[in-house]
Amino acid sequence: MHIALNASAELLHADLGRLREHAERAADDGFSGWWLAQTGLVDALTAFTALADTAPGLEFGTAVVPTYPRHPTALAGQALTTAAALRDRSLVLGIGLSHRPVIEGMLGLSFERPIRHLIDYLSILQPLLESGSVSFDGEAFTAHVDTGRPTDRPPSVMVAALGEQALRVAGHHTDGTILWMVGPRTVASHIAPRMNEAAAAAGRATPRIVCSLPTCVTNDVEAARSAAAAVFEIYGQLPSYRAMLDREGVDHPGDVAIVGSEEEVATQLADLAEAGVTDFAALEFGTTADEFGRTRALLVSQL
Q1: DSSP 8-state symbol, 236
Q2: Gyration radius of the chain's alpha carbons
Q3: What is the pLDDT of residue 71?
Q4: Nearest Cα to 261, choosing from 301, 229, 220?
Q5: What's the rounded Cα separation, in Å, for the pair 269 and 226?
Q6: What pLDDT digit, counting tens, does each position of 19-78 carry?
Q7: DSSP 8-state assignment for residue 254
Q8: CB under 8 Å, gap of 24 or more: what pairs does 266-273 form?
Q9: Which residues contact 218 (CB under 8 A, 6 or more apart)?
Q10: Is 226 helix (H, G, I), strand (E, B) or coil?
Q11: Is the CB of residue 8 less than 8 Å from the CB of residue 47?
């Protein structure tokens, strides 16, 4: 299992300088990848282009870009331009449907027929990334485009998928899935089997399963889990994440956080790998500098 970092907590500061420092240190420490959410007013793909001259060896990945606010032709152009700026660096374009309360309540867009939306989106996005040409008339999107591309090295496409239908679409059409707030029991019994079955039926390679969770090495497990439950409370309320927590048999997001001593955290990471996770993107958290330092040291020891 590859170990990467999820830098999304840095977005709270909306500071490109902090992002640069975080990515540089991640590369220096030897992590495999650096993942960034698309949230707030920092654009993840644009941030990657701003970091193209730094952090050699890191794979950059979006975790994830919501599909509803951007037409697939617009996202294809932005992703290809980012890939060109990164030159020989690997880019993963992680996309996702987001959630009805966000799309309808915050943005005023319709969240009707999300799976149809996702299929149509990929039907336009992927041909444009791969060839610069698409002719597609769908229910959610239409595009007739034939144009040049800034690079012939398209990014890998992955989908944040939790429900059965989304997992089948992701496994059948893309290189994998990107998970958040999903524990090892759910990966082993729900995510991996459905992804792998769909990929095999489509004749695709075994998909990547990227799992991201809050991670903290600490002497006070109860306090750390309580802190995680409070900070990430919203994920226990959104229906798709709530369903995954229920599958895992836990009450709140703090229960799936990777928390404990060095030995306990290492064991929890091994459990994820055994469940079928191919890439773990740690979102480091803690309440003291000592916890952050111990967490980074433990993660580096697992590389």
Answers
A1: G
A2: 19
A3: 97
A4: 220
A5: 20
A6: 999 999 999 999 999 999 999 999 999 999 999 999 999 999 999 999 999 999 999 999
A7: G
A8: 266/298, 266/301, 266/302, 268/184, 269/1, 269/3, 269/302, 271/184, 272/1, 272/184, 272/187, 272/211, 273/1
A9: 224, 259, 260, 261, 286, 291, 294
A10: helix
A11: no
* Pair 292, 286: CB distance under 8 Å: yes
Residue boundaries of the structural domains of the chain: 161-303
φ/ψ region of 92 (left if φ > 0, alpha if ψ in -120 to 50, else beta) reads beta
Distance CA 36, CA 102 (A): 19
The overall longest dimension of the chain from CA atoms, in Å, is 58
* Residue in the structure block whose two tokens are 């932005």: 78
* Spatial separation of the C-alpha atoms in residues 79 and 155, rounded to whole Å: 7
What gap in Å lies between CA 129 and CA 175, rounded to an integer? 14
The CATH architecture that domain 161-303 belongs to is Alpha-Beta Barrel (3.20)
How does pLDDT run across 86-134, given as a tens digit for each residue?
A: 999 999 999 999 999 989 998 898 999 999 999 999 999 999 999 999 9
C-alpha angle with apex 35: 30 to 38, nearest 5 degrees? 160
**Which residues does 25 contact at the CB level (< 8 Å), separation at least 6?**
none
Single-letter amino acid code for the residue at 171:
G
pLDDT score at 29: 97
Q: What is the DSSP string of 113-171?
A: SHHHHHHHHHHHHHHHHHHSEEEEE-SS-EEEEE---S-SSPPEEEE---SHHHHHHHH
Q: For a pLDDT cut of 70, what percent of the chain falls above it?
A: 100
Place of tokens 């899935």: 177
Over residues 245-294, the pLDDT tens digits come to 999 999 999 999 999 999 999 999 999 999 999 999 999 999 899 999 99
